[in-house]
Amino acid sequence: MSDTDPRLREIFEAVAQAIIAHADELTELDAAVGDGDHGHNMKRGMQAVLGELDALSAKPWNDALKAAGMQLVLKVGGASGPLYGTLFMTLGKSLDMPPTREGVAAALQTAIEAVMARGKASTGQKTMLDVLVPVSEALAAGRSPAEVAEVARKACAATKDMLATKGRASFLGERSIGHIDPGARSSLIIIEAVAAQLGDVK
Ligand code: ADP
Ligand code: MG
Q: Is residue 35 lining ligand 1, measured as CB closer than 6 Å?
């Protein structure tokens, strides 16, 4: 039985292209609170995903997510590479096939827990988790893709007023306040790209 899904290629491509298109913005955000490499890091990882698109789209969702996660670990670097790599690899490992809404919500929750363990972080510390956790909750609550994207937009905007207590931005102390977290922004870009591909799918 073939577990491949024609939407997989479109979704992976849309996510990668969205990150690449926003690389300069991500780098500017990281220049304000970090070392100005987040856009460059993510672009390198997503270019690797684009390069693997034929191989990825021949796989079922769980294996494709694991393989994309490995690319991100290998190519992104920085703090975010291992964290996004863990997110995608655990998502793939935890996803029951064929994917259902409930199955994706459960796998995302497991994947976020793995990111938290890996980065020893939680919500409220001004990181990607401040977008990923509310997104996971909205998904589990049965929200539509458009609603999930809206939750992600608000969550990303809310990182602006947060004090960073994890990652490089925490070195700035109070001066981290007033800037959107770059990893929260890259997570939002990924969620928006997936949601736009899924449209009104319930
Ligand atoms: P680096 O900080 O090593 O330069 P990047 O610039 O690529 O790495 O990524 C920075 C982003 O990584 C931050 O904006 C934040 O969202 C995320 N991040 C950093 N540390 C953690 C952590 N421990 N847990 C979750 N996310 C983190
Ligand atoms: Mg950085």
A: yes
